[in-house]
Amino acid sequence: ETEQGYKDVLIGAYIRMSRPALYGLNTTMQLPELMSQHWTPVANTLSAYVSNFNFEETASKGMLETVWLQYYQTILNINSLLEALETTGKTILPVENYNLIKGEALGLRAFLHFEVLRYWGGAPLAISAGDKAIPYVKIVTKDPNKLVSVTYGEVLSNILADLEAAEQLLDKDPVLEYSNAVLNSPSTLAGVDLTKPHPEDDFHYFRQVRFNYFAVKATKARYYLWTGDKAAALENAMSVISAKNGDGTAKFTLGNETAASNGQLTFPTEQVFAVSNTLATQTLTPVFFNNNTAYTQTTNNLNTAFESSLHTADIRFKNGRLWETRVIPLAGNFNFFRKYNDIDNSTAVKDIPVIRLAEMYLIALECGNTAAFRDYRIARALDVSIDAELTSESAVMARLEKEYRKDFYGEGQMFFFYKRLNYTRFMWPVPKDIASASYKLPIPQSQQMFE
Fold this sequence. Notes:
Strand content: 5-15%
Helix content: 40-55%
Low-confidence stretches: none
Oligomer: single chain
């Protein structure tokens, strides 16, 4: 009934996404990372079940149920917003905010369905367009018969249609004009120079934790790579990489030694889309810092993963900045994951990255742009010998596998690299055969009765 009401419903969707059930834990640091073998599993616990793709146990089955329901409940909130926009939105909202809210909502609907598809749909190299996939929900309904799965092709078509519509609606997104530095400093904060150009509406700030124009472009890059259209994937990835502010300065910049040495291992200047997690401390401390029950990995495996003997200056790993080794009584040495290290601060509100600039560079490399990858290699302080290695497709893919692991450790993207390419054998931390069928997660029982 009011403009603020529309804003509140949209922000409510972001809040739901930031909670532990989704990107605050499950779909960034836990579910996909366990399936990628990034944490050392403990027998007869959730970590062991998920690492072995065993979703028949109560704990792992419950996790899938939670993630599924939270995705679709968020989509339901978004659809409710979109329906209201078509009835009273145009009379209540100024056109700029109408377009902004509708563009974000459509973009989020596409993004969330794509996330569900990447988990519960089959590996793209092992499916047909006519195979049943997941529900694509565009309405608000309590009728379960309308929440049935449609084909893979229909889901992909709906995702792209929503992304295209979102891109058009967000053509005047404040992120296209103002720098992220300005957008992260609204006029309500002290010390802001109001003589410089800035948005007048505080709703237009903090675009990196909203589904902004470049989040749409980055999702399209992911989408096209998933569907095998490398030319379109490269075009969209490069539009993010080369993005400029209104004054011609770079919109996003790769993280560097200064950021890493300051403990900013989620690289805030790279974040194309993130969620603002107000529960970071209470959620992540027991997961990553709880003595010998924390998620960890062995020192030898980490040295192998980060190629520590070759890339001695790698900004993500040197000086123990990503992992802290402590001696735990009766347990020996234990490695604590420090990417989200400011969770020790009880007042911390942590932005959890969902899409980062680094991924766009890796997409560009896979699609044939080795020149762009050189900028990434320099930013990460990798050994120059890499430049001469990328002479074949197999060499490129081997490098990409290493970089996805190193850059997105604890962020959840490694699993989708494996699934997209239908890897049947993981070589790290130890060789592990993966059946193609394992990539298609089982539809939760709460949904199966309606299929």
